[in-house]
Design goal:
The complex is a heterotrimer of chains A (426), B (270) and C (195). Chain A has five helices and 37 strands. With 426 residues, chain A is of the alpha/beta class. Chain B has a two-stranded parallel ribbon with strand order 1-2. Chain B has helices at 2-14, 16-34, 47-77, 80-85, 91-123, 130-157, 161-177, 179-187, 195-205, 207-218, 230-237, 241-269; strands spanning 41-42, 127-128. Chain B has one domain (2-269). In chain B, 80% of the residues lie in helices and 1% in strands. Chain C has six helices and seven strands, in the order H-E-E-H-E-E-E-E-H-E-H-H-H. The longest helix of chain C has 24 residues, at 171-194. The radius of gyration of chain C is 22 Å and the shape is elongated. The termini of chain C are far apart. The chains are: A alpha/beta (426), B mainly alpha (270), C alpha+beta (195).
């Protein structure tokens, strides 16, 4: 008897907990959308909505307070098509196991998404045959299973101020042209920005850190890559800041590539211009492989453990870069060194066929071997006129090195004590 | 053993040449720390780190090998060893005492040099990350340990100081300078699939390479060695790697001390 | 120290002899998702049906993220000695020798590098897949040798046109459409230049 009463109370409690918080999206939201006229504004009450909705007419949906749309079904939670749909201020939680599943699916044109947070088990936002879409001031947090924002045959779209974390590819563009990817931030993902078979896209002022690869441009024409930060992509054995693979006529300017395993890697790519980038503190600064007719000018290469290497590459114009490892003499005061700066590809060619030898990276003995077996001059990556000076960046002096002062003091004291007592005792 | 230890320490500390070594550390390290005035702070695995590590690899093993082998060879040559042999003292304790005394003296000199250079660097406005400093310091102390040990062992095998010098330089040249050349030469004949496992095995044979790889991995740059060493790098990144390092040090120490004490015992009998 | 080195060398030589004697069947290595990358295009290799593999005679194994990448490699490296090439069954991911597999080329099948070819362990499976997906061509291993591996945007254009005829075209899309044809010309042009 008592058991039954408890069960009854428990059931009521469960119902109380669940029912007022989560509503069926089909009955509440979808019917509102269906009933709305073109151009109407719909406010969504705060709360959790279960299920998926479809928006195919020009309406504006905006969340009032904490609005969460959640679904673990196969279909995307919000499917937008048609024209000029606006979605603002909602949280989307996709918990489904469908490998192609997504939080938001977009086709059609001229939609606006703003202040959206997508938490997803697979894809975040998918664009298919979409154009004129603006996605701004939003976030996508994934589970490494799918891409953050995925473009398929979608051109003339803008993605701005979006924070993407823990996904496969932060922004993935395939067969998508003339898109603008501006001021986004991608962390902890596989590839930050990944472009494939897509032309004339603009990648500007993005920050891509702690990914396997910061930016990856493959099979693409005319990509503009400006003022981005691709840094700390250093923990995977294949990690790199920026990779250009079969990329043509790209313009890479003013980017910062710092502390990556490999700063910039250009393979089988032609006629790209790489200019005014800061390539610093990478394990390997710059690498050309089967790359032709590219230009690398006025870049700043400093503190890279191995500054540059090239194999099977011809007709690349490398000049006027700053190399902190270069021996510099400027007899005619033109700001350019008279001594060309040469980088030997010995290590790269040694490890290309037998990667096992990569354990010798920067081994003193290997440097010794390399100086003995000088590669023929045509195989060297040569900067004919290295830059003597560079614009000194703002040096933010680290204050509060108290711990270091203490360490230095402790070391001197301890060793002094050993000296004194060691000498004295008879 | 402690008498030998104290005696060794005192003798070393009283030599004037010992302080020239201290001066060398201060000069070299300060110059390295002050290199590249444009960098506000030294941290991580960068060209500066690689340069410092390589300079350390060039100098420390050579000096320590010579010091270690000389300290034993000297006593063998000038008859002091015969004198000591008359005391009831085992060769193992004798050699341990010698090693201990040298180790403390050399480590103290290096610590002093490192401390002074740090102070100079800080005075000139350089920044250092604590983690980086410890990594480099322990790397150098590790080099001192392994090569003093090797030096003392060499010392117990040679007949004269002259021979000690030749063998020391040969070992240094072999382990530091032409190590990759030799390995590439030998492994060139091995089937492809054996290259990486043999490289890993060789790593444990050469303490200089072992320490260098540990340094790079501990500075978070293990990825540079590529896929073949991914498992090794992951293992060495974990905190448990200190256990591996400790076992390696212990094993090396035991092997070297046993080897040299057996050799010295034989000499006593002669 | 030298003794140790000597012994290592001895061990090495012993291994050499063993390796030379025991010549067993070539086996594909497992895919390591977090560190394998395609030998050709540098992309990470997913442990899925599109992964392929070449084992050289010296035992070196190379992985590819797409069948097309592997054939590209074979084409470019004819001087190398290949022990075996492996592809995977589209359904159960079992490794099969490339010359024993059956292939389906279908423009609408998405593969990592857009070569649009998938592999099957027997003809029945390939046929089943082809029947399900319109526009499929079944290729035997011999026929695959002559496959053009086309993946330029010609075909994409056709796809796009199809899409357009279905949807109501708007100005935006038309504009991008034109742009693409322009690019295609550029690409074509490029190809001519290279040859």
């Amino acid at each position: 008897m008592l058991k039954l009463v408890f069960k009854y109370i428990f059931t009521i409690l469960v119902l109380l907990f669940l029912s007022p918080l989560s509503m069926k999206a089909e009955t509440t939201l979808q019917s509102k959308v269906d009933g709305a006229a073109n151009g109407e504004k719909i406010e969504i009450e705060a709360g959790v909505y279960e299920g998926a909705i479809k928006i195919a007419k020009s309406v504006t949906l905006s969340g009032n307070g904490n609005v969460v749309l959640r679904s673990c079904e196969q279909t995307p939670i919000v499917a937008i098509s048609g024209q000029a749909v606006q979605l603002r201020g909602v949280t989307i939680e996709y918990c489904g196991d469908e490998s192609e599943g997504a939080g938001i699916y977009i086709s059609g044109s001229n939609h606006v998404l703003e202040d959206i947070l997508v938490k997803t088990n697979h894809f975040g936002i998918r664009l298919e045959d979409a154009s004129g879409i603006a996605i701004e001031n939003s976030s996508v947090i994934g589970n490494k299973n799918g891409n953050g924002i995925d473009f398929w045959q979608s051109s003339h779209n803008v993605v701005k101020n979006v924070m993407i974390k823990n996904v496969a590819d932060g922004l993935y563009l395939e067969r998508s042209d003339d898109n603008s990817i501006i001021s986004n931030r991608i962390d902890g993902s596989r590839y930050g920005i990944h472009i494939m078979y897509s032309n004339d896209n603009l990648i500007e002022k993005n920050t891509s850190k702690h990914n396997i690869t910061g930016g990856m441009v493959m099979e693409a024409f005319g990509t503009q890559i400006r003022d981005n930060v691709f840094s700390f992509n250093d923990s995977n054995v294949n990690a790199q800041g920026l990779l250009l693979y079969r990329a043509f006529n790209s313009f890479v300017e003013g980017n910062t590539l710092e502390s990556n395993r490999l700063g910039i890697f250009v393979e089988e790519s032609e006629e790209n211009i790489i200019k005014n980038n800061k390539v610093a503190r990478n394990f390997i600064g710059f690498q050309f492989k089967q790359a032709k007719k590219n230009a690398a000018e006025t870049n700043d290469f400093s503190e890279n453990v191995h500054d540059a290497q090239a194999i099977d590459s011809e007709d690349n114009e490398v000049r006027g870069n700053y190399w902190d490892s270069a021996a510099m003499v400027d007899s005619n005061n033109d700001g350019r060194s008279d001594i060309p700066h040469k980088s030997d590809p010995y290590f790269l060619s040694l490890t290309e066929n037998i990667p096992g030898y990569r354990l010798f990276f920067q081994s003193p003995g290997l440097i010794f071997l390399q100086t003995m077996l000088k590669s023929p001059p045509e195989k060297l990556l040569t900067d004919v006129a290295p830059l003597i000076n560079r614009d000194v960046q703002e040096i933010n002096k680290e204050s509060g090195q108290v711990d270091m002062v203490f360490m230095a003091f402790a070391m001197v004291t301890v060793s002094s004590i050993i000296f004194i007592f060691g000498r004295k005792r008879e | 053993m402690w008498t030998i230890w104290q005696y060794e320490l005192r003798m070393t500390l009283r030599q004037r040449s010992f302080y020239s070594l201290l001066l060398l550390w201060v000069t070299v390290l300060s110059l390295l720390f002050l290199l590249q005035s444009s960098t506000p702070s030294i941290e991580g695995y960068t060209s500066i780190t690689a340069t410092i590590a390589n300079v350390a690899l060039y100098i420390i093993p050579l000096f320590m090998l010579i010091n270690g082998s000389f300290t034993v060879a000297n006593e063998l040559e000038n008859g002091q060893f015969r004198l000591i042999s008359t005391y009831p003292l085992s060769s193992l304790l004798y050699i341990s005492g010698k090693l201990g005394g040298q180790l403390v003296a050399q480590a103290a000199a290096f610590t002093m040099g490192f401390g002074i250079s740090l102070a100079i660097g800080l005075f000139f406005g350089k920044g250092f990350s604590l983690e980086w400093m410890w990594a480099i310091y322990l790397f150098c102390i590790g080099l001192i340990f392994f090569f003093l040990l090797t030096g003392v062992t060499v010392g117990s095998f040679v007949r004269s100081r002259w021979q000690a010098l030749t063998i020391s330089v040969t070992i240094w040249f072999f382990l530091v300078m032409i190590w990759p050349t030799v390995l590439i030469g030998v492994l060139g004949h091995a089937p492809y699939t054996w290259v990486s496992p043999l490289m890993k095995a060789a790593l444990f044979v050469n303490p200089a390479e072992f320490l260098r790889i540990i340094l790079v991995i501990k500075l978070g740059a293990g990825a540079v060695f590529g896929q073949s060493y991914d498992a090794l790098v992951n293992m060495m990144e974990a905190p448990s790697s200190w256990g591996v390092i400790a076992v390696y040090c212990g094993g090396f120490l035991t092997a070297a001390l046993l080897l040299s004490s057996i050799r010295l015992n034989r000499r006593k009998c002669q | 120290m030298n003794k140790k080195f000597l012994s290592i060398m001895m061990v090495g030589i012993a291994m050499l002899i063993i390796a030379a004697c025991g010549k067993d069947e070539v086996k594909p290595a497992a895919i390591k998702e977090d560190s394998d990358k395609c030998e050709v295009c540098n992309m990470a290799v997913v442990d899925g049906p599109h992964a392929t593999q070449i084992v050289l005679e010296d035992g070196k194994s190379m992985v590819f993220d797409d069948i097309g990448c592997m054939y590209g490699y074979l084409d470019k490296n004819k001087d190398k000695k290949f022990a075996a090439e492996f592809v995977r069954d589209y359904h159960d991911k079992e490794w099969i020798k490339a010359d024993k597999a059956f292939y389906v080329y279908n423009k609408s099948v998405k593969t990592p590098m857009a070569y649009n070819v998938v592999s099957f362990k027997d003809e029945a499976r390939a046929k089943k897949f082809a029947d399900k997906n319109d526009g499929s061509t079944i290729l035997s291993a011999e026929k695959l040798e002559d496959h053009s591996w086309e993946r330029n945007r010609d075909m994409m254009m056709k796809n796009k046109m199809k899409h357009h005829s279905h949807s109501e075209g708007n100005k935006m899309e038309d504009a991008s459409h034109e742009k693409i044809s322009e690019h295609d010309m550029k690409e074509e042009h490029k190809k001519e230049d290279m040859h």
